[in-house]
Amino acid sequence: MQFKNAIVRIPCKNMVEGLSSVGLGKPDHKLALKQHGNYVEALQECELDVRVLPADEAYPDSVFVEDTALLTPGLAIIANPGAASRQGEIPSMEETVRTFYDHVEYIQAPGTLEAGDVMMAGSHYFIGISERTNADGANQLISILEKHGMSGSVVEISGMLHLKSGVSYLENNNMLMIEPLMHHQAFHAYQQITVPGKESYAANSVWINDTVLVPSGYPETMKKIQDAGYETIVLDMSEFRKLDGGLSCLSLRF
After folding, report:
1. Phi, psi of 17 (to 5 degrees)
2. Residue 134 contacts by C-beta under 8 Å, 6 or more apart in sequence?
3. Residue 169 belongs to domain spanning
4. Which of 162, 183, 184, 188 is catalytic?
């Protein structure tokens, strides 16, 4: 797998009103802008051509572009977010996605799906059933994937916002995961890199072209990733964590 492009959106000032369940306070917008700029530079360092979309003050969570679409090789699927406050983000993202893709499909209500619940492992896609993604949305996605020669399967999750809050595929048959997922049947075929309980946020690390982006402040997880043979880039995510956001949430990579 080789990524060539990424789509990101600049954090809006209204992000301070974004959805949150973690109780870490409101984000500092100026610091978030700096952290986002460093994130874009990291994507470029990984040899991605980055499309930077302007801030959208109408949607506080719009910086988390990953949830709006699933971009596969040759096919884009426009999501239907389970958070009602985020559904208005879809039209502008669809417009952007169509500048890259000729083939676009859609998740339709009453199905809901946020792509933070979708983890790509080769041509197979694991789909978490969460508060934001329901069984109907997951089944629609599986049907779309199968129609285009790919596959998908459902993973029941609990105690996390999205599937990729707890597990990330780092290519080379390596799966980075939190301890509660270690014995999950869905992942038994993969080499597991276990994230210590106190560093669970670092399970949302991102493989991009043989480099792994890792959130700062999680030295045990970073060492495990490096010991597995990966180059790493460490990024401060403090302001996005306040909104339940992780590294993968900030971009669409394809």
Report:
1. -100, 15
2. 82, 110, 111, 112, 113
3. 5-253
4. 162
Known active-site residue 29: no
In this prediction the pTM is 0.96
Q: One of 12, 36, 46, 249 is an active-site residue; which one?
A: 249
* Lookup: tokens for 81: 């977010």
Q: 234 pairs with which residues across the strands?
A: 214
Three-state SS at 214:
strand
When pLDDT is averaged across residues 131-140 and rounded to a whole number, the result is 98
Indicate the pLDDT class of residue 183, thresholds 50, 70 and 90. Answer: confident
The total domain count for the chain is 1
Among 144, 151, 177, 173, smallest CA distance to 163 is for 177
56-71 tens-digit pLDDT:
999 999 999 999 999 9
| CATH of residue 175 | 3.75.10.10
Identify whether 36 is a catalytic site residue. no
Tell whether the model's pLDDT for residue 221 goes beyond 90: yes
Integer distance in angstroms from the first to the last C-alpha of the chain?
Answer: 9
Tokens, residue 192: 């597991």
The structure tokens listed for 241 are: 């964590």
Q: Is the bond leading into 196 cis (omega within 30 degrees of zero)?
A: no
Mean pLDDT computed over 10-23? 95
